[in-house]
Each structure stands twice: as structure tokens, then as C-alpha cells.
Amino acid sequence: MPIYDIFSRREKRAKKAGASDVYQYDTLPREFRVQVIHMWEDAFGESYGPRTSEAAIYKPMNEMLCREYGRFRLSNTLAGQYSYKAACAEFLLNSDTAEALDIIELSFRFLWVELTKNNLLYQLKPETVQDLITELNERFRESCAGYQFESGIIVRIDSTHLHAEAVKPALTLLFEEKFEGADEEFRNGFEHYRHGRYKEALVDALKSFESTMKTICKRKGWDYPSGAPAKQLINVIFEKGLIHQSLQTHFSGLRQTLEAGVPTIRNKLGGHGQGEEPVEVPGYLASYALHLTATNIVMLVEAFKASR
């Protein structure tokens, strides 16, 4: 039997980043673990039947993890006849975070492999599998757990390039430079996003962007109109030369990006009356706005630091 590169093994190889983050990586709430068991039931319950799922799903997961961990049984607390399904559930509920992620990954990898091979058994439909994977990632986000299931494995969100290169540096810079208002608003934006409040996430994304520029202006002694919106603040930033004059030609497109990026998304979808029909803001757009905000904040604060 091959040695599987399970999550806990990869995790031991990885170095934990020291910067602050909007996600945590050390705990998985019990509520989240119970939700995963409900997802297992949706995937392996009625579609497979109890006997088939016990033999085809839960028994292989037991055997694979026991071999990897050097154990004879996955659970030593079950009384009576040993049930592989019950052992998997008991293990998920009581194991540490890395081991819980191991069994979650194995179970969803089975679904993902079956989906990619177009080899789904019984009544399990492709859209059901995709819905379950989507639900798992949404549950991770709701629990503030910084993980997601992608292409058959669980990855830490802070290992993705965009999060590592934009969000975490923005949080670190705002904290270290004591941009307290912008820091609070930026974190609030992610909190809204985590709970599916996407319009509110857009509003706080723009607030943090504007607060960053206002803080820079105040510390530099630059005047700006009371209640100035993002566009006027951007004008001040460029007119005062925060972006060096020799680089302004190179950054000719930057001004348009700043003016047309976060403010436009927020104004059109989140910041004004929605009219007769409710306006739905999709999650991917809120995510884009938050990451665009993070990139802008990093650029502005780094430019501010360099100008001192």
C-alpha cells in the first residue's frame, strides 16, 4: 500500500507564518465537525446504502488512517460490534485539528476523484458532489477556519499566493503602523464576508481604503475636504507626490485602478439605495473587492513608510 501524503504530514513540513490573519488555523469547532458528518450522510447515506457505504467508504478510510498513524483501530472507545462509520464519526469529533482535516480530506477526495472520473455510483449526482464541496468550503469560512478544499486536497488559505501576498501584508502593515480605523474596518469587511453579508463587506472594504488615505493625509499634514470620498482622497495622494513623480507615468494606470476599483464596486452594488428590487452581491465579487482593497492598502502604506 502506498504512503499517502496526508494533510498532517504536509502540515509538519510547512512553516507557520507569523503575521496576523483574518483566519485561524489551530481549531475546528465541534459544530463544524458535526456539519461535516451531516455532509457525509448526504454523500454516503441514501445514495450508497448502509452496507455499501460501510464497506466502500468508511472501512477504507479506517484502514488508510490506521496504517498512517500506526494504530490497530481508529477508535478504541466504541462498545459492542465495531462500526467503521461510527469510528470515523467518533474520530472526527474527538481528534486534533490536523487529524480531523486528514479524515475530512480523505472523504471529500473520494467524492472529488469519483466526480473527475465521471464514475459516481448509485444515485449520487455530479451537482450533488459539487454542492457538497461548495458547502464544505463555506462551512470552513463560517467557522473562521483558514482552509479550503481544492482539486482533491485541503490547503491553508494563507498558502495561496493572493492571500499571502496581499491580505496578510495589509493586516500586518495596518497593525504595525497603527492605522487603527482602517485595520478595524478591513477586518470587519472579512467578518461580513465570512457570514455571507456581501454588501456590508463592500461597504467596509471602501471604508478601510478611505481610512488608510485619511490617516496618511493627517500624519502628513495634508488638508482634504471634510467627508471627502475616495476619489478626492486619491487626488490628494497623487497631488502631494506620495507616489514619486518619476514613477507617476509608470503608474498612470494605477490612478484609474484606484478610482474605478473598490469605490465603483461599492457604489454600484453596496453603498446606495437598492431600489425596488433587492440587489444581490455575489460572493466572488465581494472577495475580489476585499483582495483589491488589500493590494491598494499595501501599496499606499508602503509608499507612506518610504516617504518618512
Automatic annotation (TrEMBL):
Pfam families hit by this protein: AbiJ_NTD4 (PF18863), DUF7014 (PF22809)
Residue ranges occupied by any HEPN AbiJ-N-terminal domain in the UniProt entry: 5-169
UniProt cross-references to InterPro entries, sorted A to Z: AbiJ_NTD4, DUF7014
Domain DUF7014 intervals: 177-302
UniProt name for this protein: Abortive infection protein-like C-terminal domain-containing protein
Annotated organism of origin: Myxococcus xanthus
